[in-house]
Design a protein that fits this description.
Helices cover 34% and strands 33% of the residues. By secondary structure, it is an alpha+beta fold. This is SH3 domain-containing protein.
Length: 143
Amino acid sequence: MKFAVFLIILLILACVAMFFYLNNQLIDSKSQYLSLNRQYINLREKYLKVSKTPANISILYKIPSNAYGTTKDNTNVYLVPLISLPLLLNLPTKTKVNIIDEAECDNEIWYYVLFPNESNINSKGWIKKSDFIEVIPALKKEN
């Protein structure tokens, strides 16, 4: 009988200890969440102040006149053909890329390119024509 009472008391103590442990974990998680949420809000506000997207964007798509190109060192690859919008990544070295599409935006020529990447993640993007060392023309079809 004493043993059963001892086990019950021990079980109750274990439950109380587990409750306090999990409660402390929950409090820590809440404070981390609140801290991250504040950081997110601050970053979003800074981004919205810095990011001034033009009201009307005009992009004229063209049939690509070039098939391949070699980029300069430290070439920026953009999500869309505008420097004021998100940068996708930076190509640190000269890179040979396939030119998929061509567009003119704000009187500047941009190429939509496919570049060598180990995965399909972030393997396409827009590069300004001025960021190329050389471009190789596409072969024209003869009728």
